[in-house]
Design a protein that fits this description.
- Strand 8 and strand 9 form a beta hairpin.
- By secondary structure, the chain is of the alpha+beta class.
- The strands form three sheets. It has an eight-stranded antiparallel sheet with strand order 14-11-13-12-16-17-15-18. Strands 5, 6, 7, 8, 9 and 10 form a six-stranded antiparallel sheet that branches. A four-stranded mixed sheet has the order 1-2-4-3, covered by helices on one side.
- It contains 17 helices and 18 strands.
- Helix 13 crosses helix 14.
- The protein binds 6-(3-methyl-1H-pyrrol-1-yl)-9H-purine.
- 6-(3-methyl-1H-pyrrol-1-yl)-9H-purine (ZME) binds next to helix 12, strand 16 and strand 17.
């Protein structure tokens, strides 16, 4: 409103600054510095400008201008910037600050349709999942699948897949979408679904921002529970741990089981040198667990993390249901840790972790992450080679997740990749390191490389989640049999390859032009 026209940025076509949308461009150092890195803090690359759209039409106008310019420039949508390796950056181009969409009229960009057998919510791609949750709960409804951390945007998680402990039952978040609005790399605004413009629908889901900007998603809802019985069960033996996890995600456990199944691995050294208490475990709990590891001589403690949804009008039945379920499981006797919380407290549990880490000044640090999908048949080899081998005496800050998912809940027409073996279960293994010093960044990056090399040598056919590959050959291997289709769709929906260059999948024509004129 009444904003001064920004000074034209050297690297952008001058006439961009004569357009109506120019008043929404920021070229000053403060704006561009904030958009020059992401949550991972592994990459710094400045855009020439940051764009603050009000509507999807604003985004379409910007992209149309770039795509039809003699010197197309990169354009990257950025929600919370929670990529970890610069995937949400636009070096030398324009970062679109999605969080400025519908500013002031925030409620207008989350519309719940509660009536009917299949309730859904229309959410702006810029909306945070925590805000979607609050809006749907007003109707006693909620999306079925959640990432661990909720201050992420709908567009960002759907561009990856959106995994978490409910995915074994409902598939990843991308499997729970009816329809999308997408602004393509030619600046067209397209509504797509399984029946309409379906090639764009399937491309965009898990599409890493390569085919268009998701500006709306129609997301399936279910009746929300009021409360959650949230448990952690400790194991010292990985065979028993994985056998119980696979039981819990199987059809046999459907009625009697958890609504959410995840798992964590705690390496021994972290007992001696890690935090004395955590949001879930008290100091007493951690002491008991450290003694257990010592007594058993195990290299790690494995936790199954389960959640059973219920409503307060039948608390004793959840006690009975939980007791019956635990009777089927072989965790270390006496090592059951239980919390009874509201549905929102459970879903928003990582906020507590964030608060603790921020107050310790270790939230805004580099995050050299490695997220792998590992075939079920190789998870014991992975555990032996990595947790009992490579990382045995490691003690980096951060957490290790390890839990199984059912592949048949994923839709292979979508761009997201799962392991290509013929097994029906695969594990998500997330090495979510925080680097507390610069040389730890290098060390952890090397360690992640050696984890992948160890898997390659052992013939373990992993796929990365939140993928980062350093060559087009690496990306071709990542996408495997989908690569041909993906390059066709890229040519159709983003022919100048201007979208989300931070993923480094396609050499962008925008860069090529830049090089030619440099
Ligand atoms: C797959 C993934 C990527 C990041 N995460 C997480 N990030 C931060 N805290 C977490 N706690 C559990 N999962 C977490 C999980």
């Amino acid at each position: 409103a009444g904003q001064l026209r920004p000074l034209p940025a050297a690297g952008l076509p001058g006439d961009l600054f004569n357009l109506g949308i120019a008043s929404r461009l920021r070229t000053d150092g403060n704006a561009t510095a904030r958009a020059s890195t992401d949550f991972g803090q592994m990459v710094t690359a400045a855009p020439e400008a940051v764009f603050h759209p009000r509507t999807p039409a604003d985004i379409a106008a910007l992209i149309r201008f770039s795509a039809s310019s003699p010197a197309p420039f990169p354009v990257a949508p950025r929600g919370q910037g929670h990529s970890w390796r610069g995937q949400s950056l636009a070096p030398g181009g324009v970062v679109v600050d999605m969080r400025s969409m519908g500013r002031g009229r925030r409620g207008a960009r989350i519309n719940v349709s509660a009536a009917g057998a299949e309730p859904y919510v229309d959410a702006g791609g810029e909306q945070l999942w925590i805000d979607v949750l609050r809006a749907t709960l007003r109707h006693g409804l909620a999306p079925r699948v959640w990432t661990d951390y909720l201050r992420l945007t709908v567009g960002g998680t759907l561009s990856n897949a959106g995994i978490g402990g409910q995915a074994f039952r409902h598939g990843p978040q991308i499997a729970n979408v009816h329809e999308l609005d997408v602004v393509t790399g030619t600046g067209e605004m397209v509504t797509c679904s399984r029946d309409k413009n379906s090639d764009l629908f399937f491309a965009a889901l898990g599409g890493l921002g390569q085919f268009g900007v998701i500006t709306r998603a129609r997301i399936m809802l279910e009746t929300a529970p009021k409360r959650v019985r949230w448990v952690r069960l400790a194991y010292t033996d990985v065979v028993t741990f994985t056998k119980d996890q696979e039981f819990l995600i199987s059809d046999r456990a459907r009625e009697v089981g958890f609504n959410y199944v995840e798992g964590q691995v705690q390496l021994n050294r972290s007992f001696a040198e890690g935090p004395k208490s955590t949001p879930f475990f008290s100091a007493t709990d951690l002491n008991r667990l450290a003694k257990l590891a010592l007594r058993k001589g195990s290299a790690a403690i494995y936790y199954i993390e389960g959640a059973m949804y219920y409503n307060e009008d039948d608390p004793e039945s959840v006690d009975q249901k939980m007791e019956a379920l635990l009777d089927n499981l072989s965790f270390e006797p006496g090592f059951v840790f239980t919390k009874d919380v509201t549905f929102v407290q459970f879903l928003d549990r990582v906020l507590e972790e964030e608060r603790v880490l921020r107050s310790a000044g270790v939230w805004e640090v580099p995050h050299p992450w490695l997220n792998l999908f590992v075939p079920r048949s190789r998870i014991l080899d992975f555990d032996n080679g990595v947790f009992k081998g490579l990382l045995r005496d490691a003690n980096p800050a951060g957490i290790i997740l390890m839990y199984p998912m059912n592949k048949d809940k994923w839709d292979d027409r979508m761009t997201a990749m799962t392991p290509t073996d013929d097994e029906d279960v695969f594990y998500a293994v997330s090495l979510l390191w925080s680097a507390l010093s610069v040389d730890e960044v290098v060390k952890l990056e090397r360690e992640n490389e050696s984890v992948m090399n160890l898997c390659d040598k052992a013939g373990i056919k992993w796929k990365q989640y939140l993928p980062h590959h350093t060559s087009q050959d690496g990306w071709q291997q990542h996408f495997g049999a989908k690569w041909g289709k993906i390059t066709e769709l890229k040519a159709k929906y983003d022919p100048q390859a201007i979208l989300s260059p931070g993923q480094k999948i396609f050499p962008s024509r925008a860069e090529a032009v830049g090089i030619a004129t440099a």
